[in-house]
Amino acid sequence: MRVGIWFLKLAAFYFLVGVAMGLTMEIIGDHRLSGAHAHINLIGWASMALFGIIYVLFPKAGETKLAQLHFWLYNISFPLFMLGLSFILLGNESLLILLMVFPNFLVLAVVFFVLNVFLQVKVEHVNSFLNKN
Ligand code: HEM
Ligand code: HEM
């Protein structure tokens, strides 16, 4: 459950970063970071908000070791992936190593999430606030 709350807070944070980036790209007329902006909004805001909602809706899923692994691996690899991507999009290859390493960890975090959903997301595990019957 706590993991769910933190996913929701980080999702909101990355939404702000994503739209601020979109607005800045528009204002300065430089769209080179479009790919990073798109993924900050989609992997950051949209996906993390969904993780948060799922973990709050199914509290048992949010209490597992897999949820912890998912949370930490995702939130360490995602910003480093975006940093590496932004540098490449701006034509600087000095952080290429980040782009070679961290998308793999991000996908591994998603594997932990999927396993967790298959093992823990069940009708009888739905948040008791919603399960009135
Ligand atoms: C204030 C809000 C936003 C502004 C000002 C903005 C602005 C921009 C700009 C200037 C581009 C580059 C377009 C181009 O060069 O073709 C772009 C691309 C993109 N944006 Fe946003 N954006 C905003 C919010 C969002 C949100 C909330 C999402 C997703 C949840 C999003 C998803 C994308 C995607 C996927 C692309 C890439 C499109 C492509 O490559 O075809 N944007 N945005
Ligand atoms: C590990 C995770 C991911 C990796 C490595 C990845 C990688 C990529 C790559 C290589 C492209 C092509 C960029 C280009 O040709 O310029 C792309 C485009 C795109 N991806 Fe992802 N992606 C990931 C996750 C996601 C997720 C979770 C979403 C949506 C929820 C998403 C939505 C998109 C969209 C909308 C585009 C087209 C917009 C653009 O060209 O910037 N991606 N992604």
- Percent of residues in beta strands: under 5%
Q: Uncertain runs with pLDDT below 50, 5 residues or more?
A: none
Bound ligands, each once: protoporphyrin IX containing FE
Write down how many β-strands occur, each being a DSSP E stretch of 2 or more residues. 0
The average pLDDT is 95
The DSSP helix count reads 4
- Spell out the helices and strands N to C: HHHH
Rg measurement, Å = 17 Å
Number of domains: 1
Structural category: mainly alpha
Distance between the termini: 21 Å
Largest sheet: none
Estimate percent helicity: over 70%
Overall shape: it is: elongated
Task: Output the keywords.
mainly alpha; binds protoporphyrin IX containing FE; 133 residues; 76% helix
Topology:
Elements: H1 2-28, H2 34-57, H3 65-89, H4 96-120
Helix pairs in contact: 1-2, 2-3, 3-4
The structure holds protoporphyrin IX containing FE (HEM) (2 copies).
Provide an overview of this structure.
This protein has one domain (2-124). It is elongated, with a radius of gyration of 17 Å. 29% of the residues are buried. It has 4 helices and no strands. Helix 3 (65-89) runs antiparallel to helix 4 (96-120). By secondary structure, the protein is mostly helical. It has helices at residues 2-28, 34-57, 65-89, 96-120. It binds protoporphyrin IX containing FE (2 copies). One protoporphyrin IX containing FE (HEM) binds at residues 18-19, 22-23, 25-26, 31, 34, 37-38, 41-42, 45-46.
